[in-house]
Amino acid sequence: MQRISGLDLAFRPAILILFLTFWVTMIYAVVIHTRVWDEYGKPLADVIITDGYRHGRSDEQGWIHFETQADSVSISKLGYEKIAFAGWKVPASLVLRSQPVELPPIKVTGRFESDFISSPDVLSLRL
Fold it and tell me: What is the pTM of this model?
C-alpha cells in the first residue's frame, strides 16, 4: 500500500486551482457590440476590428459585432486613425477621425530613346 505524504496533499489543491484557472480563461470570451462614426456623425462601413487572430468588419450602418478571447482589439480603416482598446473596455460608440494617407515620393529614372524621330510621318510633318 502506498503512503500519501503531507506534501502530496498540499499540492493537490494547488494543481486543481491552476487547472480551473486555465480552463476558465480558455472559455472566457468578450462580446463587443459597438457602432463606429466619422467626425461628421456619419456611420462608417467596412471598419476593421481585429484581436490579432480573428478579424471582423462593420456593416453599412457602422455596427460591429465581434467576439474575442484576446485582451485587446484594434479598430482601423484606411484614411482614418487606428485605435486600440482592452477587449472589455470598448465603448458603445466610437468616433474615428480622418487621417490623410501620405505616400512617399516616387522618383522615376530612365533614359528615353526613340526611333520615332526618323519615321517618314515625322519627316513629312516637318516639311
Answer: 0.60
